[in-house]
Amino acid sequence: xxxxxxxxxxxxxxxxxxxxxxxxxxxxxxxxxxxxxxxxxxxxxxxxxxxxxxxxxxxxxxxxxxxxxxxxxxxxxxxxxxxxxxxxxxxxxxxxxxxxxxxxxxxxxxxxxxxxxxxxxxxxxxxxxxxxxxxxxxxxxxxxxxxxxxxxxxxxxxxxxxxxxxxxxxxxxxxxxxxxxxxxxxxxxxxxxxxxxxxxxxxxxxxxxxxxxxxxxxxxxxxxxxxxxxxxxxxxxxxxxxxxxxxxxxxxxxxxxxxxxxxxxxxxxxxxxxxxxxxxxxxxxxxxxxxxxxxxxxxxxxxxxxxxxxxxxxxxxxxxxxxxxxxxxxxxxxxxxxxxx
Length: 341
Ligand code: AKB
Hints:
This protein has helices spanning 14-24, 58-67, 81-86, 88-113, 133-139, 153-170, 208-217, 237-249, 269-279, 291-299, 307-313, 321-336, and strands at 3-9, 31-35, 49-52, 68-75, 117-124, 141-142, 184-191, 193-195, 222-224, 234-236, 259-261, 285-287, 303-304. The protein is of the alpha/beta class.
């Protein structure tokens, strides 16, 4: 008998750390982690099996089908927006071809099991585009169906993979004589910038938020790569994990869409600096905008409308801006750097 498992790809990543911890609180979970890098030692107690490998390796994915009965896939493996801009073709291969491989694996699994496999996909605010700052400011909270004209490889990848998930869930092999009954139950969340106390982001456009805080806690001067007035939606990592687990657990009947916005707070970069200085008054933080990265930030939304998630699956962040810093980020980050600062 194969173990019934939850597969987390990219488990070593920022969301992966939080999700593995969140799932470990459930009694009946058997988590299989997959990552190109060796498993982070802090994750060892949280992951029943770990496979080091590449989501582009079809032989490896074939082994997963043979060895496990995968009930849910959290497909977190991705190359974030900034990193993908430095190598767009690699970004496309990992973000799109890798996702296609996992969608095919999920369909194959669902055929073996005779029931749908849940596929939970973290999309991003990177799918949105505003031509001018005036448009961005005038729109305020953007809805899921508006402004989806991404101008980064990562944003294009995320939008296309949302559509791929919808295809595999509802239209896969629609012309075949033997229509397959069960495929996948695809559900996606468009995440804002995420701030974790446990990990530091690598290669995202929204990284200035978490970087500023982590640098201050280590007494390292920080040159913020966006203007003071730059504004994006953000969320504390525990809320991102809450959103993934809540959406995964939601009944099919309650869901009226495949892709959902979620968010919590939308500070300007200057407001983040002021909050950070409040907790780390000696922090050296200045603003030296990187013109090209600034250009991306200016096209992303200042805020998103998460009304559909609140209506369909009772989404509600636990951490607003003040609580995120006072009760989660600052205490945990101070503890993390206690011996280094
Ligand atoms: C990035 O900045 O690339 C990510 C995101 C907002 O999707 N953190």
